[in-house]
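Worked Example 4.2. Consider the chain below.
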Amino acid sequence: MTRKIDWNSKHKTAEDQQVDFVDSYLSWSPRKKWEYLMELVSQGIGSGKKKGGRKIEWK
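Applying the procedure from the previous section yields the following structure tokens:
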């Protein structure tokens, strides 16, 4: 199963998109946050088995 990420035209950069998502996420109820996280876990996100094409390097 693949996930399609739609780019919102109001965002100029990936950072804008991330900030918008985080602001939205923080306003969710605890139950909705839990369900979202469990959906990510069921997809194998964060298991370390899959690697994306982008890599963030902290300096």
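The chain has a mean pLDDT of 76. Residues 11 and 51 are 25 Å apart (CA to CA). Compare this with Example 4.1 before moving on.
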